[in-house]
Known about the structure:
Number of helices: 15
Radius of gyration: 29 Å
Strand content: 5-15%
Largest sheet: 9 strands, mixed
Amino acid sequence: MRPLDPTVKVDFxxxxxxxxxxxxxxxxxxxxxxxxxxxxxxxxxxxxKYLQVFTKMIYxxxxxxxxxxxxxxxxxxxxxxxxxNEVAEKQVRDFLxxxxxxxxxxxxxxxxDTALDFCxxxxxxxxxxxxxxxxxxxxxxxxxxxxxxxLLMGESNNFGYDYVKDFEKRFEIKTREQVPxxxxxxxxxxxxxxxxxxxxxxxxxxxxxxxxVLVHLGxxxxxxxxxxxxxxxxxxxxxxxxxxxxxxxxxxxxxLNTFKEQILEEVxxxxxxxxxxxxxxxxxxxxxxxxxxxxxxxRDIDVGMIVVDYADLIKPKRFSSEKRHDxxxxxxxxxxxxxxxxxxxxxxxQTNRSGYNAEIVTMESISEAFNKCFVADFIFxxxxxxxxxxxxxxxxxxxxxxxxxxxxxxxxHMDPSKVEIKTKQxxxxxxxxxxxxxxxxxxxxxxxxxxxxxxxxxx
Length: 459
């Protein structure tokens, strides 16, 4: 083993410029990581001058004000830079602009682990060098203190959102980056659609068209340029893909083979991407979904939205004595996946018998586990009577909405032959937005009036 030489320069040069820029970016955006690596980081480890200047600016601000700077604060600091050459100042400004334009960091966990490992090794080397003289003086207790302190530095210290240290964070403008449904009424009441880390659920009786609704939602996201991962536990992957063909092109399902070439030409123009993964019913748990998503992520596939057709058919990770507990757990895990992979998740659930042929399906009709509704951010139901199916009509009922009003009923046009679903206007030219409770009151009033008329007649 070669003796440690404190005069030898060590830096991040062997990892490359892109690695160093992404590391500085993570220090800017992740307060907990900045605190953790700050215990062992020497800004001179950056071989590039402007990254040294930029990261030193961050840590100087943290030292002085005891809070992590926001991007707005950094922009102010950069504008008032003094003492640096013009080239370095321009590079710092350009780097901050790049951080503003995109906050995603590819391979961020690898960068964090690699940088921390490098910095902690340098810290430990420094402690060992310092201990050499102490060893000659037999100062074993002091050596133990120095080495143990070095080993602890850079350990994870993320205890959550710190009220003071993260002060600036709560004043930043938040964006949900919603994926629209292309139903204007839904997009209005959800402020643009479902956002990152959010779970949406469509509830309906068997045979009413849950899968068609999920395909519609996925198709709209593809049009927005998103990569959609569609998990199917009931239908075959090619059958789901054919429904997307019809929904995206307007060609009826029965005519797809006839217009094969035209369909290919149309779908090749789309900015988004669709991956359909088929699992036999109850054969895969949310762990299997997470594993599949991790593999996609490892291949640099940026997941824009996840569709699960449907959650009630997922295998529980652990079977309990009651099915409702299994279902509750599955929905909780789906929402965790939405948060972990930072994208919306849409799924479906089936009603019990009381929902079949109902004019409006409410939350009371949900099958097995009512509590699974608690974790969802947006829930709407689909009801289609026998008459509706004949007339290609139906109703959406907004049962839960974290982003705005709920209890709203919307008449729809639904043509399963070409996976076409649209909210429509009633005769008066406005959508039926009456809450279900209001509709119940109207029916009660009509009943009273009817009874009153009957009583008057009998007299």
